[in-house]
TrEMBL record:
It holds the Pfam family Epimerase_2. NCBIfam families: wecB. It comes from freshwater metagenome. This is Unannotated protein. Signal peptide: none annotated. Gene3D superfamilies: Glycogen Phosphorylase B. InterPro entries: UDP_GlcNAc_Epimerase_2_dom (IPR003331), WecB-like (IPR029767). Residues 26-350 form the UDP-N-acetylglucosamine 2-epimerase domain.
Amino acid sequence: MKVLTVIGNRPQFVKAAAVSRLLRERHEEILVHTGQHYDDELSTIFVEELGIPRPEREFGIGGGSNTEQTSRMLAALVPVIEADRPDAVLVYGDTNSTLAGGLAAAQARIPVAHVEAGMRSFDRAMPEELNRVLTDHLSDLLLCPSPTAVENLRREAVAGRVELVGDVMVDIAQLIRPRALADDGPLRELGVEPGAYVLATAHRAGNVDDPDRLAALVALLTAVPGPVVLPVHPRTRARLEAAGLIAQLAAAGVRLCPPLGYVAFAALLSRARAVLTDSGGVQKEAYLAGIPCVTMRDTTEWVETVESGWNVLVDLDSAAALVALDRVMPAERPELYGDGRAGERVVAALGALAG
Ligand code: UDP
């Protein structure tokens, strides 16, 4: 069977790492990189570090509004799908690349498989939520990371076949964990001690594009006592620079660094006192590593992390964040997102799709 996979940004490289190698053992894969994230910090290092095959096609489509970007991706994908005539198109997560890949395939009447189907924050103001809902409703095979995701899809009565496979990011977190635990280089470089710093990430449009929200984010980060390490996403860096806020963060002792490779980031995450984030993937990785998480959003699609007490939603409320950072953690940490073998199940489900 021939599968055309569409990826484009950092979390999708992590997800593809769990599937592509296994997929290529049994089937042919054409990997298309839309270029949504194109710089080395967010792209090349992941391809090298996680052993993702080199993409067969690269579009270099970054920048612009969500709608513009999605439409340029659609226009670029149509001829590729027509020329390659895959048996299925595989998409991951909730980005513009996900929706463009799904829609281009569905219009060409090629079956669409969606990994990380069924996730919902129920916040339609998030561009990611629109991408999730639309992609799920045009997919033929919906591969879910959790029972909650399966339940969301049943409630929405999606047309495609729904399967619980577990979360592919768990596969990679488990695989990389020994390397991350053996590597304390990133802590030494940033001058922090194990268990004595907070690891922060922020890049959601809802937090960094609006100047008032960006100022509240900076106020929150600078209110945290003790060292805070902030690998700065390019989008966030651009907004902070435009608002003249970089100096304020640095003056308050926030340790800014460029975005890190997966292993270096996992090394920092697994030894942090707590994680402060607006990322979807990082909330989950904190849970898997048993690190308390405080999420700078008022909704999450990873609801189980909150229900289990390992994650607290504080939006950009500094006082709530400080309370949440000092909370007592639960004794239990059940297996919420599968056993680390989701990639195998994705490949098996794709094979069944071909009949
Ligand atoms: N990540 C990384 N380096 C960093 C920050 C994050 O490797 O400096 C990884 C992180 O471990 C996770 C993924 O990037 O696997 C999350 O991506 P992001 O926060 O960009 O996207 P989201 O999950 O919010 O869609």
